[in-house]
Specification:
Radius of gyration: 18 Å
Number of helices: 11
Number of strands: 3
Shape: globular
Distance between the termini: 37 Å
Structural class: mainly alpha
CATH class of the largest domain: Mainly Alpha
Largest sheet: 3 strands, antiparallel
Order of helices and strands: HHHHHHHHHHEEEH
Helix content: 55-70%
Number of domains: 2
CATH topology of the largest domain: Ribonuclease iii, N-terminal Endonuclease Domain, Chain A
Amino acid sequence: MLLESYVADLEAKLKYKFADMGLLEEAFTHPSADFVGKNYQRLEFLGDEVVNLGVSQLLFRTFPDAEEGKLSKARSNLIDEQGLAFNAKNLDLGPMIVLGKGEEKMDGRDKDSILSDVFEAMMAVIFLEAGWMTVYRIITEIFTPLISASPDIDDLLDHINRDYKSRLQEIAQDLDLPLPLYTMVEKVGPEHFLRFVVECSSMGYVSRGIGRNKKAAEQDAAYKILKEMHVL
């Protein structure tokens, strides 16, 4: 069961009252928690489309003169794993997640891949309960502070550029050191919920990234090294 205090705090932040506590609990239940029965996978599937459309509409309205390619890139960076996990952390969703013992030991509440999935699943719950206008209002309130801080689409792209692989490579090149090396380590989870694990070695640092695909895992690994180097 989700703690009432956590739910009340989340409702206050979203300015929204959840109607179906069973559905909300499902949205916060990781697949590793097989003792519960249901998990967030189906809701995450729907929430992915809800968030995608909401941010697309917000960008379309905010930057009426921006070309399609730049809008697409901005949306991609805003709703990638790191972008959604950032919003999940701001809403303090981590403590609400129901995890299996294995994920609990592996600090699953802090993983971007899990936090981003939970964020999408939560948006699916709001959409199912209250419809498009309500969920779009919430998406707008969450994403507008970053978007509205930029006078144009080019400035926004500069602010939300999260190509961590290129950043890490540029630093290595500037220091005349070998380029980062990425090694595929393993794939974890069932076929319908596969996660890729990639190891990155660069400038004496080693990290492991995880993502929905190999590219996302590489970006996550590069991000962790940049964080360790204190350049982010």
